[in-house]
């Protein structure tokens, strides 16, 4: 018995009509963690574990929840043993998004659409590995098969962007692969990371940094470098909204103190970060960049496993709810200082979706668009996406939503766009059939195309990328 059928998730007749439009729309992946080097070198994957499990902390969390030993997750077990451990639990992961995502990935890329509880695991492992050696499973081919037009990677401000440059020069690959400026650790300074941040910026800019103004100038120089290399966006993630009630003199004092290795409290660190972010945000606006904020996660909570495995390994939690007053104050501060660009905000806590979208409406005009981003991380489940779309529409304009992203390190994750599009089309289709939305093929088709692609094209305004 197969799970992925033509009417998977899309049960209504009108939803199926809308999905017939959505399914062939190209993908604008404006936030992901793909490696540009991997795309450029275009080498075959050795095993399914390498492409499917190696960097996926979603899957790792499931394996831990199932009681699988860490050696099968991030440890020294063979790729085959790790794969068989994961595939054994997958049939029991019902109601978790990985159940749907993994079935979609196997069906779309490998044409495997069977009951995984009945399948021979060793045979499946060998079959998948054999497939990966075929030309259609090379990284670039996987991207092309997924109908991707634009990829925006996530990059350290001091990255030389070598592989983005090489990809731009390679005329055999038509997909645009653009960098995104990710300055988290250069903005959230502490006495423990300030020396490394300064040193790396000094190397990248070939200039000496002694004072805060010189530090900010170096970051702005890197923004200019990224822009020249195709970047049209920044992205930053913080557990809390940064404080912005600080003077230039106070910020300079905090900077000097942490340079000297002295302790300052969390709120003053936030004020220093808020000052730095405000200053670089003026440069974002100068270049008409889209600015993304991922807000709320509490990261790396398991100290023992963090020390063993490292960051981004599945030890992160949904954070406390964001403060509406803090977010409004922060955006208002940027706005008053000519530092508010087109902005996408992704809260980690689903309880914040309504608040963030309502707050975004306070700062959206004909000049600047601020909006709630796609359901992120713990929220990109079927029910999470449905509720997110409802709350977006309730206090905003659903037709202007910038749509889905992968936020993934895996080239097999592009089925998340199919998943989102099926959910979106079914949600609208059911409301049409209930008489809550006028059945107008012209306007509904336009809305689907806009959410899936055109709104991102309009927002990012990348040369050579046109609406459909």
From TrEMBL:
GO molecular function, one term: glucuronate isomerase activity
Pfam families (alphabetical): UxaC
Tree of life domain: Bacteria
Main EC class the enzyme belongs to: isomerase
Biological pathway: Carbohydrate metabolism; pentose and glucuronate interconversion
Reaction catalysed by this enzyme: aldehydo-D-galacturonate = keto-D-tagaturonate; D-glucuronate = D-fructuronate
Record field: transmembrane: none
EC number: 5.3.1.12
SUPFAM superfamilies to which the protein is assigned, alphabetical: Metallo-dependent hydrolases (SSF51556)
Keyword line: Isomerase
Family: Belongs to the metallo-dependent hydrolases superfamily. Uronate isomerase family.
PANTHER family: URONATE ISOMERASE
The protein's name: Uronate isomerase
Species of origin: Mammaliicoccus sciuri (Staphylococcus sciuri)
Source taxonomy: Bacteria, Bacillati, Bacillota, Bacilli, Bacillales
């Amino acid at each position: 018995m197969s799970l992925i059928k033509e009417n998977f998730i899309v049960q209504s007749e009108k939803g199926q009509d809308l999905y017939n439009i959505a399914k062939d729309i190209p993908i604008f992946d404006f936030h992901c963690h793909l490696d540009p080097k991997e795309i450029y070198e275009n080498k075959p994957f050795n095993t399914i574990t390498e492409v499917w499990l190696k960097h996926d902390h979603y899957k790792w969390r499931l394996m831990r929840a199932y009681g699988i030993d860490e050696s099968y997750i991030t440890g020294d077990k063979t790729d085959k043993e790790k794969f068989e451990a994961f595939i054994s639990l997958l049939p029991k992961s019902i109601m978790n998004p990985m159940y749907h995502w993994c079935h979609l990935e196997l069906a779309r890329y490998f044409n495997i659409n069977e009951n995984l509880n009945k399948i021979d695991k060793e045979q499946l492992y060998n079959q998948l590995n054999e497939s990966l050696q075929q030309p259609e499973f090379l990284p670039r081919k996987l991207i092309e098969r997924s109908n991707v037009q634009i990829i925006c990677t996530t990059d350290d401000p001091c990255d030389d962007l070598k592989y983005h440059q090489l990809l731009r020069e390679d005329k055999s690959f038509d997909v645009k692969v653009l960098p995104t400026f990710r300055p988290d650790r250069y903005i959230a300074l502490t006495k423990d990371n300030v020396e490394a941040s300064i040193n790396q910026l000094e190397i990248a800019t070939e200039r000496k940094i002694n004072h805060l103004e010189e530090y900010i100038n170096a970051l702005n120089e890197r923004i200019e470098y990224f822009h020249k290399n195709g970047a049209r966006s920044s992205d930053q993630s913080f557990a809390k909204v940064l404080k912005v009630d600080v003077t230039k003199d106070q910020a300079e004092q905090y900077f000097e103190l942490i340079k000297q290795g002295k302790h300052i409290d969390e709120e003053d660190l936030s004020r220093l970060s808020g000052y730095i972010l405000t200053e670089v945000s003026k440069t974002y606006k100068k270049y008409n960049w889209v600015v993304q904020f991922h807000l709320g996660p509490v990261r790396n909570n398991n100290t023992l496993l963090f020390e063993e495995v490292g960051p981004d390994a599945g030890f992160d939690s949904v954070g406390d709810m964001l403060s509406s007053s803090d977010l409004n104050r922060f955006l208002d501060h940027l706005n008053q200082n000519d530092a508010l660009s087109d902005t996408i905000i992704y809260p980690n806590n689903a309880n914040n979706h309504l608040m963030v979208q309502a707050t975004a409406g306070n700062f959206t005009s004909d000049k600047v668009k601020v909006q709630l981003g796609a359901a992120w991380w713990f929220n990109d489940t079927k029910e999470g996406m449905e509720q997110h779309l409802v709350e977006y529409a309730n206090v905003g304009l659903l037709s202007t939503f910038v749509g889905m992203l992968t936020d993934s390190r895996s080239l097999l994750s592009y089925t998340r766009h199919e998943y989102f599009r099926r959910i979106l089309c079914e949600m609208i289709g059911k409301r049409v059939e209930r008489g809550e939305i006028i059945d107008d093929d012209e306007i509904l088709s336009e809305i689907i195309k806009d959410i899936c692609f055109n709104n991102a094209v309009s927002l990012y305004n990348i040369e050579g990328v046109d609406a459909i």
